[in-house]
From TrEMBL:
MIR domain mapped to chain residues: 315-375, 385-443, 447-503
Superkingdom as given in the UniProt entry: Eukaryota
SMART domains in UniProt: MIR
EC number(s) per entry: 2.4.1.109
Pathways per UniProt: Protein modification; protein glycosylation
Source organism (scientific name): Yarrowia lipolytica (strain CLIB 122 / E 150)
GO CC annotations on file: dolichyl-phosphate-mannose-protein mannosyltransferase Pmt4p homodimer complex; endoplasmic reticulum
Chief place where the protein resides: endoplasmic reticulum
Protein name: Dolichyl-phosphate-mannose--protein mannosyltransferase
Length: 741
């Protein structure tokens, strides 16, 4: 840092007030361009290596792939669904499936489902995220380069992202975060390039980078609504830029010229991104033209714009007194009962009720038929035409044995904590009437008509509040190798889901399919309705989550998120960052705030802390990166919805830019800008000497980043057969690692 100098004037000079935000350098010297290229190339190759290696592992649905893989399948089958996020990134994923000819038949229902057995092109899907995540690294490097920083600073900033376990995790799965992160990085890069053209306004390059910034911004807001934070960052810089241009004494612009500058920025950075953003919704509506699981979130007018899909063509309204077959969604088992009893005593010594067995059977059988009855019977001459709705209370009679479905406080065969399901005779059912009542609770939470095939529901026992459930472990010989059915106390478990597979003996009138007539409504009406629903549902995400965390903990990596576990192989993917990179960012942020505060204090005492160019770099370029970090971080403190560590990744990316710049600041590269500007020709070679402390610090940081990345690799890539001791070594902070005992 330069020595403190007394000012020769009574007025404190503002740092480079006439320059635009962010302050950038002249182009790098040709002799150093090769070093920039070589460093960037090595980091880019390393980024591709870390993100593509073992990309096919695990070959199971991981974390939120259960959502975004499913949405891609819905796009491919043109089936309407509802999601909280805008469509751009999801359409990209679906485009990959379309390009390779996938039909979208797999619906990604549960974490842990196998991709290989279901013939899912998951590696191609993941390759999209891996490619975008890899390309983010050279964008970070070039942003720092065009902001005027040394090769060392560019290398540190890009390496923090390249070797970050959290960025690698999110770039290896079918998620939206890689698209969001590269869009944020591109927005900042394009704005830096636009600022480079501040001395040639309205030139071709000026317009090119201005519109490029607007397009990149549109990608952020079209991926996730947190993209508005990127608008805030770039918008803050633009407002400051326009404020400087408004000053006639410093800019020399007439009001007409100023309005041209204002209009160009408003057009390219507000109107163009908004139009592109709307265009993705139009594509979304055009592609999703068939009825689907998202219908229930929309109004009847909206639903009338959707045609029938294959499922809807088979779906029929369920009415009371219909004979139906249940199907468990996860196992495909049909609800079944037969004239056989539970054994008196199980292998572990527990005693059953010896009631009639209720099981799941995977093939068609007369014993799969059940009659759905109302809570209170209708008069015999009025039992036709009463639809079943979500939240209705119902009873079920097993046709083959003329018994009634019931669950009670007796442990199930395999799960001592779950309740046994059985059936009882009409006489016993009358005595134990309350134990035969169930609620049909639609997964959508609505009270719509219950339809075969299409309506997914949980069957909740009215008295004990357990949900009818099944799983993949088959019963022993006494249960004929069929699926166990029991009452799950965790009613929110998604594997509690059932459907009515078909109605037996449906009359020709009800069996006939009448094609749905669709109508058109204006795009703006559909868009506004969807926006209202998206924001309403987003604000409703206030329930607690075991891996949710508060923003104050994110920069310090207090806890992460478990993405995937595999008990037989003792493997786990645990989402967390690179401690070295994250804490370097924290230190640089603190130093930046301290430097600004100290400089302002010194200015009050008429003492110059930094040279003109160094001061401009600190306030404008680093200030821009700090603004970007702040706008991507602090708004989360105002949100009431669930928050997770991965929400910090865009802010982490911005902090990486600030950290790289910070090393130039700490090791005196800013002072050298003024030395070079003021040096005579004979001294110029001296001022351009190698900065050995900076190079040594860079090497040290790279070694530490690599060591931390490699140490946590087993959790990043889900490596199998880790010893208890190895897992315990990695259980830092409040990490909740499985298999640590």
């Amino acid at each position: 840092m330069a020595e403190l100098r007394n000012r020769k004037g009574g007025v404190a000079a503002e740092p480079a007030a006439a320059d635009s935000t962010p302050k950038v350098m002249v182009k790098p010297k040709k002799k150093s361009n090769a070093k920039y290229f070589q460093a960037n190339l090595v980091l880019t190759l390393l980024a591709f290596l870390t993100r593509f290696i073992m990309l096919s592992h695990p070959d199971e649905v991981v974390f939120d792939e259960v959502h975004f893989g499913k949405f891609a399948s819905y796009y491919l089958q043109r089936t309407y669904f509802f999601d909280l996020h805008p469509p751009f990134a999801k359409l990209l994923i679906a485009a990959v499936g379309w390009l390779i000819g996938y039909d979208g038949s797999f619906k990604f229902e549960n974490i842990g489902e196998n991709y290989i057995t279901n013939n899912v092109p998951y590696v191609a899907y993941r390759a999209l995220s891996a490619s975008l995540g890899s390309l983010t690294v050279p964008i970070i490097f070039k942003t720092l380069q065009y902001s005027g920083y040394s090769v060392a600073a560019c290398t540190i900033g890009a390496a923090i992202v390249c070797l970050d376990n959290a960025h690698i995790n999110d770039s290896r799965l079918i998620l939206l975060d890689a698209t969001l992160n590269i869009s944020v990085a591109l927005s900042l890069f394009c704005y830096v390039r636009f600022s480079n053209q501040r001395k040639s306004p309205f030139s071709l390059a000026w317009w090119t980078w201005l519109f490029s910034t607007g397009i990149a911004l549109s990608c952020t807001i079209s991926t996730k609504y947190v993209g508005v934070f990127t608008f805030m960052a770039v918008g803050g810089a633009v407002v400051y830029d326009l404020w400087l241009l408004l000053d006639y004494e410093k800019s020399g612009l007439s009001m007409k010229d100023f309005l041209w500058h204002f209009g160009a920025r408003a057009y390219a950075l507000i109107l163009v991104p908004f139009v592109i953003y709307l265009a993705w919704f139009q594509v979304h509506f055009v592609v999703l033209n068939r009825s689907g699981p998202g219908d229930a979130f929309m109004s009847p007018d909206f639903q009338e714009t959707l045609g029938d899909n294959f499922l809807a063509q088979q779906a029929r309204d369920v009415e009371f007194y219909d004979i139906v077959r249940f199907k468990h969604k996860s196992t495909g088992a049909l609800l079944h009962s037969h004239d056989a009893r539970y054994p008196l005593r199980y292998e572990d010594g527990r005693i059953s009720s010896q009631g009639q067995q209720v099981t799941g059977y995977s093939t068609a059988d007369p014993n799969n038929a059940w009659q759905i009855l109302p809570e209170k019977d209708f008069p015999e001459d009025q039992r036709v035409g009463h639809p079943v709705y979500g939240s209705n209370k119902v009873r079920f009679r097993h046709l083959a044995t003329n018994t009634y479905l019931l669950t009670h406080d007796v442990a199930s065969p395999y799960f001592p904590t779950n309740q046994e399901f059985t059936t009882v005779s009409p006489e016993v059912a009358a005595e134990r009437y309350n134990e035969t009542i169930f609620e049909v609770r639609l997964n959508t939470g609505k009270s719509n008509n219950v339809r075969t095939k299409a309506a997914e529901f949980k069957l909740i026992h009215d008295k004990t509040k357990v949900a009818m459930w099944s799983h993949s472990k088959l019963l022993p010989e006494w249960g004929f190798g069929q699926f166990e059915i029991n009452g799950n106390k965790n009613t929110q478990d998604p594997t509690n889901t059932w459907t009515f597979d078909e109605i037996v003996g449906l009359s020709p009138e009800r069996a006939a399919f009448t094609p749905k007539k669709t109508r058109q409504i204006p795009f703006l009406q559909k868009y506004l309705e969807l926006q209202g629903t998206m924001f309403r549902e987003n604000n409703a995400l206030t329930a607690s989550h075991p891996y949710a965390s508060e923003p104050i903990t994110w920069p310090f990596l207090i806890r992460g998120v478990s993405f995937w576990t595999n008990a037989p192989n003792r493997a786990q993917i645990y989402f967390h960052g690179n401690f070295v990179g994250w804490y370097i960012e924290d230190i640089v942020i603190a130093l930046f705030v301290g430097a600004i505060a100290a400089d302002q204090f010194m200015r009050k005492r008429q003492i110059t802390t930094f040279g003109r160019r160094a001061s401009s770099k600190l306030y404008h370029s680093m200030g821009f990166f700090f603004l970007a970090w702040s706008t991507h971080f602090f708004p989360f403190f105002l949100m009431g919805r669930q928050k997770f560590l991965h929400h910090y990744l865009p802010a982490h990316l911005c902090a990486a830019l600030l950290a790289g710049a910070g090393f130039d600041f700490i090791f005196g590269e800013f002072d050298r800008l003024d030395e070079e500007a003021n040096a005579s020709k004979k001294d110029l070679e001296y001022t351009q000497r190698k900065n050995k402390p900076l190079h040594l610090a860079t090497i040290t940081v790279l070694i530490l980043l690599t060591a931390c990345f490699l140490f946590f690799c087993p959790l990043t890539y889900g490596l199998a057969n880790q010893s208890v001791q190895a897992i315990q070594w990695r259980q830092w902070m409040k990490f909740e690692l499985h298999f640590s005992k």
